[in-house]
Amino acid sequence: MTGFPTPFLWGAATAPHQIEGNNLNSDWWAREGLMPGMEPSGDAVDGYHRYAEDIGLLADAGLTAYRFGVEWARIEPREGQFSNAELAHYRRMIDACLDAGVTPVVTLNHFSVPRWFAEAGGWSAPESAERFAAYVARVTDILDGVEWIVTINEPNMMAMMVMLQEAARAGQMSEWQSPTVGSDGAEPSRDAIAQGLPVPKPEYAAPFIAAHHAARAVLRERTTAKVGWSIANGAFWAEPEHAAKLAQVRRDYEDVYLEASAGDDFVGVQSYSTQEVDGNGLVPHPPHPDNTLVGTAYRPDALGIAVRYAAEVTGLPVLVTENGIATADDERRIAYTTAALEGLADAIADGVDVRGYLHWSLLDNYEWGHWGPTFGLIAADRTTFVRTPKPSLAWLGGVARSNGADLPERS
Predict the structure, then answer these.
(1) Which residues participate in catalysis according to the annotation?
(2) What would the 3-class secondary structure string for the chain be?
(3) Tens of pLDDT, residues 182-192
């Protein structure tokens, strides 16, 4: 007994804007040139042209699933104008996965949107769900053979980013504050995650929920894929005297989105660390030598906590769509992931229906405004684009080949 069911997806994940490069028609590309403190994505790691190599490295290591995104800004560079060439590009990515025996897990929106969509009001515009559904309808033309679809990545983080953008327009931010990296860029502050970042207000959730439901309806009509979305899970905790505040933070940060998953085929769980809540809300991660490159506490047990909570709230099967650590020490990455998977196996043993584990990230990449944090199983030279697999890639591939039997025995 390995603690993991059969079949079980073992893989890694990426996002298009973070790896492809030159996403010229997106809101993120435009924002990179305007916001102080934001590094440009530029060529990124040229994943747009090197997807076959990346998929090959993943498959050769023993992994069986690849979560990647299709870039809306490439497919619909102007409203109502769809690029057949770009649709064909992403179809080739799907075929490359299928030819390699890799299950494609396709994300339809991973933070970035077309510039025209942003300039027309973005997700706050009354037409946002209709516009997203129209894009999704065209993408269904290339989704034959795709069994897993994530409509929107981390809508709770996107709601937070809408709030940050409004603060920037109102002159309340002097420089870009990434949701995952501190404001100084080269050396992220050690309490980056909670420093100056708001808990998303519930009213900002409505456009994303409407867009998800609209996209789900289109996908149900035109595909046979399993449909869900991925939620950023905080694995929050509090001392007993702060239980009421903990419930409020969970409600605003996660529960609104988890409950909107009702009727989905699965819920995507994205977990990296835990965070304390006190009477004032989220507590910044205290500085500690064990903190990660993005300032979060080293808490691999967060994954088990997160999948249990998501399953409890939604009643749905869970797909771990992201879990990983920002570190320059690959041995630490292996240690973190080992402990995270042990916690995941314990949750499965206790009855949580988990369908797969997708590590973040396949590649070191552009971390939404900064290049410093490294999450990848594969290093990528930003000048030559040469890929250098880290020992963690072969290690996780070995875990996949044994379906978890290579993990240490749990006490």
Answers:
(1) 154
(2) CCCCCCCCEEEEECCHHHHCCCCCCEHHHHHHCCCCCCCCCCCCCCCCCCHHHHHHHHHHHCCCEEEEECCHHHHCCECCECCHHHHHHHHHHHHHHHHCCCEEEEECCCCCCEHHHHHCCHHHCCCHHHHHHHHHHHHHHHCCCCCEEEEEECHHHHHHHHHHHHHHHCCCCCCCCCCCCCCCCCCCCCCCCCCCCCCCCHHHCHHHHHHHHHHHHHHHHHCCCEEEEEEECCCEECCHHHHHHHHHHHHHHHHHHHHCCCCCCCEEEEECCCEEEECCEECCCCCCCCCCCCCCCCCCCHHHHHHHHHHHHHCCCEEEEEECCCCCCHHHHHHHHHHHHHHHHHHHHCCCCEEEEEEECCECCCCCCCCCCCCCCEEECCCCCCEEECHHHHHHHHHHHCCCCCCCCCC
(3) 433 333 333 33
